[in-house]
Design a protein that fits this description.
The complex is a heterotrimer of chains A (449), B (334) and C (322). Chain A is built from 19 helices and 13 strands. Chain A is of the alpha/beta class and 449 residues long. Chain A has two domains: 214 residues, Periplasmic binding protein-like II (D-Maltodextrin-Binding Protein, domain 2), CATH 3.40.190.10; 203 residues, D-Maltodextrin-Binding Protein, domain 2 (3-Layer(aba) Sandwich), CATH 3.40.190. Chain A has a five-stranded mixed beta sheet with strand order 2-1-3-13-6. In chain A, helix 3 packs antiparallel against helix 15, helix 13 runs antiparallel to helix 17 and helix 18 runs antiparallel to helix 19. The radius of gyration of chain A is 23 Å and the shape is globular. Chain C is built from 14 helices and two strands; from the N terminus they run H-H-E-E-H-H-H-H-H-H-H-H-H-H-H-H. In chain C, strands 1-2 form a two-stranded antiparallel sheet. In chain C, strand 1 and strand 2 form a beta hairpin. The longest helix of chain C has 37 residues. The radius of gyration of chain C is 25 Å and the shape is flat. Classes of the chains: A alpha/beta (449), B mainly alpha (334), C mainly alpha (322). Chains B and C meet through helix 1, helix 2, helix 5, helix 6 and helix 7 of B and helix 1, helix 2, helix 5, helix 6 and helix 9 of C.
């Protein structure tokens, strides 16, 4: 209440200051940026960083911020962290009021939209000038943040969907842990076997997860979205219909997976409540490999888990792709984009910082950093590194980020019009698949005009 | 003077708390004893007993039934709260394994200790201070301004009254979700972002809910009172302050309870408008505890959730008593 | 601010007495006084509320992309889409109506009965009031959502009780028939605020009425129906209108209990939740959300209008005003 200078005035002032520093920075020879920007050393610079996530992420991220500040005492950080839904409500309001923070977090479904609508600051100039150092980052991963030939964000870590397997349960059931090349047919057998032998569910929740839609088609060598993003890339519903039919068999005939009404109780809850954590199933869906850390922490250190890839279709290929778990991006409202870029560089390339972050946001994209972390990784991290290394040898490649409209399809079409009614038995898989395809095509065409 | 008032309130709060704990037990016991002795007599000397104790028997039994029913149903009502309280003392593993038990294995204050620390070096004492300031000012401002407006709507005939009243009511019917963005843009143009202004200043202009409620209460007061006061030479302002305000004390008390609670419980406004975690209110901080993508310290969530209820509850108890002791219409009418 | 207002009020009040005889001037004076008294609200409305409300009305005829700030006039397109082309919309309407029309009467009934029960000056009513009001102050926080889910979960308290009395365990939260009932129950459970308002209303009923009735030999029930109910009608009216509005706007409870998805199968997809999803989701069209919100306003206003029109037949004021 006593603050005389509003944030807005302050921004304007610091914007002026920022412009000055930019000029002097361009005047100086390239290459001097990386250590510390000499022109910036004297000026006090404010940075705001907002991310979504829980307590663990908050704690480690603030530690990294402090580490950065120790090396750059002129940077004054403010930060906020929120749950995923609150995060987007807040950031949307801030976008409308031109009050975005300097650095924000993004997901694969949001990055394209925010870049195309000019809310993010392209990073190419900083990559060229070396403020952001891409030397040790594989080019595939560099391009994950590319929209319309400009890089708008850096991946905060690599991820892949997968299946978390309780190794102790497999042992008790006397069933071999399946190889990475397993098919959906094998999957059904294994799930039934586990369920029969153990008296628990063979597989837990989200066997109808929206990501599987893309992975299943990818297994048939079809990327879900047409290259121009204006439609889906298929007209044959069979793969997804077959998948739903398998789910219904497992759910209603074999009782090898929970009924959807049972599953719906835990879907939006934290790791503590998940079936696999509570020992109620032998395998469970993992929307991102980085979630293994939280799951394993909740389950207890004495348990043993392994991540398996999602099965492939009979005669098909591995449909999974390595993807960014999330991005960090600089917004257009940033008064000091260059300093923000410096922080991003620190975030992805600094070994010390990444030892604190410890792959919580996904596997570090910098190979040198990754090697340093691998040396003394704990069991969950080790399992994740191992999984992504296996996957790197045999995986599909998706175009990231997703085309516009995908989030709309996920929230308003895939679950409410397709997956949920099919699992509750109020729609047949065939009819629902037609609805899914038609509505999705409509949305994609409209959004990517 | 201040000290005296403070100590009086302290005593009041202490008594209230003690009362809460002991009075239902006492009440039950007393009525039970009465009923028991009466029943005994009834069994051994039925005719005499009937004659002698007819009145007492009836009232004792009625009291017993009243307290039994109210208490039993009350326990069902607050079971979830007791569950939350019990969970706030449980260890991390116990919360989810022994979910239906209300008695923790050990009474540990760890959850309170770890929860109070808050996040990233900002403890809950900061959040509580912020919340108390915001909610305190909001409550006083909204109750008082609403009363003034309510008087205008309830007692004065003026052109456009019905229109404005209808407009006021309809402002409550539009979901806040669609007003959020235009409002944010407006407040950011006023340079109100990252200040408490968006949380407090709107409350100075009255709140439709309270205005409507007080209008209903004022309209329940006989208009002869106003007329009598007018004949005695009272101005409109005088009538409002000397007649109306004292008479709608129950409504004012109710409004104060609601105003404080709504402000205290609101997380969306502070979430959107405050950018500095040091300015966060309790409601925002509580919400930040839980994120489905990571392991949550549920014990701490429950512990801080319980603490967050304390100010609201205390305010309720204070105003609730005040409301009961308020001057009734009859007192003035005579 | 308030002291200034008070001074003005009394000054104008003095003027009033000298001109009271002349009708026209009296009317003008009343206008002045009326607007003076409602000025706090009016200023706030014109200065702070009107702009966002008017903006949202204008936006409901557009396609408004919050992120790019791009606004495109689309006329009635949003309304057409809502009524003819959006299956989720009608599910939201159905869920909201079901919730409102079941929970409001139940909630008011409980509130009135408990208020009447806890009004009489017995010694411990204060404590009982606190107990019955307590659920209403826990609101829609994360802790409450977790607690509520825990109680109704597959292995929660309610199912334990069901097994105890020999019934089958039910999946309350995941079952498309029962899920909404857990929210209705939650709403009824939090009947504290109308209860408190009823209590304040009961407080205002002059004791003489009851004394006179006792002398006439009236019983408890006839006192309730012949004195309490009629004299409480202004407050019942208020509670009815407000609870109806609130129930149509219920957001937080549905949001936290279903995780903001309206699951299972959109049976708890309340209207404001859907407005929120449509306004704030990625790639959302705020114009569409606004259009939905304004349809809701019209519907609630219609209901409120009907209640207001009917009020002359059943609401009794002690004044001759209006």
């Amino acid at each position: 209440m006593t603050k005389r200078l509003s944030r807005r005035d302050f921004l304007r002032l610091s914007a002026a200051a920022g412009a000055g520093t930019m000029l002097s920075a361009y005047g100086s020879p390239l290459g001097s940026h990386l250590a510390a920007l000499p022109a910036l050393a004297q000026d006090k610079v404010d940075l705001r960083f907002i991310w979504w996530g829980g307590q663990l992420r908050a704690d480690i991220t603030t530690q990294v911020i402090k580490l950065f500040q120790a090396k750059n005492p002129n940077v004054n950080f403010t930060y906020e962290f929120l749950s995923f839904d609150d995060y987007w409500t807040l950031l949307t309001a801030q976008a409308a009021g031109d009050g975005l923070p300097d650095i924000m977090q993004h997901g694969t479904t949001t990055l394209a939209e925010w870049s195309k609508k000019d809310l993010l600051h392209p990073l190419d100039e900083y990559i060229t000038s070396g403020v952001i150092d891409f030397t040790n980052i594989p080019s595939v991963l560099q391009n994950h943040g590319k929209v319309n030939d400009k890089i708008y964000a850096v991946s905060a870590g690599s991820n892949a969907n997968g299946i978390i397997a309780d190794l102790d349960a497999f042992e008790r059931a006397g069933i071999d842990v399946p190889p990475d090349t397993w098919t959906w047919g094998d999957f059904e057998e294994v799930v039934k076997g586990l369920s029969e032998n153990l008296g628990i569910w063979g597989f837990g929740s989200y066997l109808h997860h929206v990501d599987l839609w893309r992975i299943i088609y990818s297994g048939h060598n079809i990327d879900l979205y047409a290259p121009d993003g204006k439609s889906l890339n298929y007209t044959d519903d069979t793969p997804i219909v077959d998948h739903m039919k398998m789910i219904l068999r497992l759910q209603d005939e074999d009782f090898a997976i929970p009924h959807i009404s049972e599953e719906s109780e835990v879907n939006t809850l934290g790791p503590e409540a998940q079936f696999i954590v509570k020992g109620q199933c032998a395998m469970d869906y993992l929307a991102g490999s980085n979630q293994l850390v939280a799951m394993w922490t909740a389950a207890g250190e004495d348990r043993h888990f392994k991540i398996l890839p999602v099965p492939r279709p009979e005669g098909g290929r591995q449909g999974l792709a390595i993807r960014p778990s999330q991005y960090e991006a600089v917004t257009v409202n940033s008064a000091n984009p260059e300093v923000a870029a410096m922080f991003l560089n620190f975030f992805i390339n600094d070994v010390e910082a990444n030892k604190i972050l410890n792959a919580e946001r996904g596997v570090p994209i910098n190979t040198v950093v990754l090697d340093a972390l691998k040396a003394d990784a704990a069991a969950p991290q080790k399992a994740i590194y191992d999984y992504l290394a296996r996957l790197a040898e045999d995986s599909a490649e998706f175009v990231f980020p997703d085309p516009l409209g995908v989030e709309d399809i996920r929230t308003n079409v895939y679950y409410p019009e397709f997956a949920d009614p099919v699992r509750y038995g109020t729609k047949s898989p065939e009819d629902a698949a037609v609805t899914l395809r038609e509505m999705s095509n409509e949305i994609l065409a409209e959004a990517n005009k | 003077m201040l000290n005296r008032t403070l100590s009086r309130y302290r005593k009041k709060i202490k008594n209230t708390i003690l009362n809460i704990i002991f009075s239902p037990i006492r009440a039950f016991r007393r009525n039970y004893k009465q009923a028991k002795s009466a029943i005994k007599l009834f069994v051994f000397h039925p005719v005499d007993a009937l004659r002698m104790y007819q009145g007492q028997l009836k009232s004792a039994a009625r009291g017993l039934i009243f307290h039994a029913i109210v208490l039993a149903f009350g326990l069902v009502m607050i079971y979830p709260l007791i569950w939350m309280l019990a969970s706030s003392f449980k260890g991390p593993s116990e919360i989810w394994t022994r979910t239906t038990s209300l008695i923790p294995n050990e009474l540990s204050l760890d959850n309170y200790r770890s929860g109070w620390k808050g996040f990233a070096g900002i403890s809950f004492s900061t959040y509580f201070k912020n919340s108390l300031w915001v909610s305190g000012v909001s409550t006083v401002a909204s109750v008082f301004s609403s009363a003034i407006v309510a008087y205008g709507f309830a007692r004065i005939r003026f052109t456009g009254k019905k229109f404005w009243f209808a407009v006021m009511l309809s402002t409550m019917m539009l979901p806040a979700q669609v007003q959020l963005i235009p409002q944010y843009i407006m407040f950011s143009k006023l340079h109100w972002i990252n200040s408490y202004n968006p949380l407090i200043i709107p409350r100075f202009f009255g709140m439709p809910f309270f205005i409507f409620m007080m209008v209903q209460f004022i309209r329940g007061i006989p208009i002869e009172l106003d007329e009598a006061a007018e004949i005695d030479g009272c101005s409109r302002g005088g009538i409002f302050f000397r007649i109306i305000l004292p008479l709608i004390k129950p409504a004012l008390g109710t409004s104060a309870i609601f105003a404080f609670y709504w402000s205290w419980d609101d997380f969306l406004t502070p979430l959107i408008y405050l950018n500095d975690p040091r300015k966060y209110t309790v409601a925002v901080a509580l919400r930040n505890f839980a994120d489905p993508s990571s392991v949550t310290n549920w014990g701490a969530v429950f512990a801080m959730g319980i603490l967050a209820l304390v100010p609201v509850f205390l305010l309720f108890i204070l105003f609730q008593r005040y409301m009961v002791e308020g001057i009734s219409t009859t007192g003035l009418k005579g | 601010m308030t002291s200034v207002l008070q001074k003005d009020v009394s000054k104008v009040g003095l003027d009033k007495r000298t001109v009271a005889q002349k009708g026209k001037k009296h009317w003008r004076h009343n206008n002045l006084m009326g607007y003076l008294f409602i000025s706090p609200w009016l200023i706030g409305f014109l200065g702070l509320t009107l702009i966002p409300i008017a903006t949202s009305l204008a936006l409901s005829f557009t396609h408004y992309d919050i992120l790019s700030g791009h606004v495109e006039w689309t006329g009635l397109e949003n309304f057409k889409r809502m009524f003819y082309d959006d299956p989720r919309y009608w599910r939201a309407v159905r869920a909201t109506f079901k919730f409102a029309f079941i929970s409001v009467p139940l909630k008011l009934l409980f509130a009135l009965l408990v208020a009447d029960l806890l009004y009489n000056a017995r010694r411990f009513v204060g404590v009982y009031r606190a107990i019955y009001y307590a659920p209403s102050i826990v609101g829609g926080s994360v802790a409450v959502a977790v607690m509520w889910r825990q109680i109704f979960s597959g292995r929660g308290l309610v199912n334990d009780l069901m097994l105890e009395v020999g019934l089958e365990r039910k999946l309350w939260l995941g079952d498309i028939k029962y899920a909404i009932w857990t929210l209705i129950l939650m709403a009824v459970w939090q009947f504290g605020s109308p209860m408190l308002i009823f209590l304040a209303g009961l407080k205002q009923i002059p004791n003489e009425y009851y004394e006179a009735a006792s002398i006439d030999g009236a019983g408890a029930i006839s006192k309730f129906t012949r004195i309490t109910l009629p004299l409480l009608t202004p407050v019942i009216f208020f509670n009815l209108v407000m609870q109806l509005i609130f129930s149509f706007m219920t957001f937080t409870q549905a949001y936290v209990v279903s995780g903001g998805t309206g699951k299972p199968l959109d049976t708890t997809l309340f209207y404001s939740l859907y407005v929120y999803i449509r306004s704030f989701g990625v790639g959302a069209n705020m114009g569409y959300g606004s259009a939905m919100a304004w349809v809701m306003l019209v519907v609630i206003a219609a209901f409120t209008g009907v209640i207001f029109l009917s009020s002359r037949f059943w609401v009794f004021y002690d004044t001759t005003e209006n």
